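Allow me, if you will, to draw on your knowledge of protein folds for a short while. I have a record of one protein: its chain in single-letter code and its fold written as discrete structure tokens. Could you please explain, in whatever detail you think fit, how the structure tokens follow from the sequence? The record follows directly beneath this note:
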Amino acid sequence: MKSWLTAEGYLNVGCLYRPIPPASASITVQFQIENSKNYHTLFNYDVDTCQSVKSHTVSSLPSLWFRNVRKYGNLSTIGPMKVGYYDLRNFHLEDNSIPVYLRPGN
């Protein structure tokens, strides 16, 4: 996997994907209280990536993020994902993909 940020702060990622069944991902959102070294978990999702990649109508947060990622990369829209090279170019979280209760921070 290779990743880097552009001067504008956009994320670029490239990786070779070799699936290991079952295909799943764990997404954890954490926050850091000011002047603290510790991060606290706000929520954690265990996601069936095949189902999330195929889903265009589900309104869950992981599905929304997958749709956002697909705009900037070549992530498969069908599951299971095949072995291959997948990348993101100039990715950034769009305003509608960040819940209003998440404030800016670390």
In short: Helices lie at 49-54, 61-72.
